[in-house]
What does this fold into?
Amino acid sequence: MGLPWKENENMSFSTPTMMVLILAFVCKGTLSHNLGYRLTSPASVSVQRGLCVHIPCHFTYAAPHQTVSGTLYGYWFKNNKGSWYYFYPNNHYVQGLLVVTNDKRQPVERSAVGRFHLTGDPAESNCSFSINDAKFEDKGTYYFRIERGNLRYTFITNQAASASLHVVVTELTEKPKIWNTSELVVGKPVTVICQAPGSCSGTPPKISWRTESKSYKTSLLHHQHSSRSWAYESEITFLPSLADQGKALTCSVTYPAVGARAEESIHLRLDYQPQDIKTVVNIQRPGCPGSREEEEGLDPVVAWEGDTVRVICRAEGRPDPSMAWMKENEIVTKMNQGKAHTLLLPEIRLQDAGEYQCQARNRLGLTSKTIRVIVQFRKREKTRVRSLR
Ligand SMILES: *[C@@H]1O[C@H](CO)[C@@H](O)[C@H](O)[C@H]1NC(C)=O
Ligand SMILES: *[C@@H]1O[C@H](CO)[C@@H](O)[C@H](O)[C@H]1NC(C)=O
It folds into this structure.
């Protein structure tokens, strides 16, 4: 349909009429400023693209008008030089684009429909409004107008017709929030939640996950906190395996109304019981300084009396395991946290022979490995001969 106000540039009205219109527009803002008209709102608000903002606003108007009966209509205009808005009921023009009103007779700017909401009741001197699905094109200056019978007033703060409210729209930089609802442990199902930025009642964002984990299940959750405040969350449940260690879990949020996107990733740090326990044996024979054999997994360990035997025990686990070497249920040596712990048997004696068990333990469990140490008797004839000489 052809809205007259959209065609106002082509409409022919005399220059005097136009002058009167402009004077009426400018003068009301200045003259009436001293006559009990006041609007209180933030001078400027900032909103990220795709998100929402609520602008608290309160106004007062001249006492003689307060007793007039009839509905008090409120109108928010976006300043747009060159466009004039045509008011049907009173047959007059106002500069700007109408974005929201409680006056059902007046058509509002198409791109504002459903996104701008007058949340305050003008009858209660409340001009609060909200913007949902914020778009770059929303940035600019806005001003409020009231009408009731002969009361027609636009709240403008100075003669240069600057608007009372400045809206800034920036790119979406807020990130989704990700958190785990239980500890991250290999082999234990875990649910991770992602919450979309903003708590807006506009078009719901779409939340999706990217993961390298094979077995997972996602579901979308919406929580309404109040009529204007929502939380959009998605949860993913999966069974982490050791192969998922360090892998990224990404939550991606898109705002379909404006095509904005926000992403956040976490890297899985999975706890697991100690495993992959290994031993490396090193024997040093006296008089043979070069003889450092290192052998992984050697069992049994066969040494000569007087040799120095080292057995390094390594294990993987998260958190780092505490490690101990035991012999017949007695601790030989232990350490609090680490990935390797050495059993040192210097100048080994016959009674050092036996079974040694390396234990690696963290809060998730224990793993162990036992090796047998055999000590062979070394004949001391040569030594005796030497001392007899
Ligand atoms: C104006 O209306 C808004 C939205 O309903 C409300 O949150 C606010 O408290 C009201 N302000 C006053 C001063 O009543
Ligand atoms: C999330 O995982 C970490 C690492 O496993 C853990 O320390 C933390 O307690 C977990 N959070 C909750 C709420 O369980």
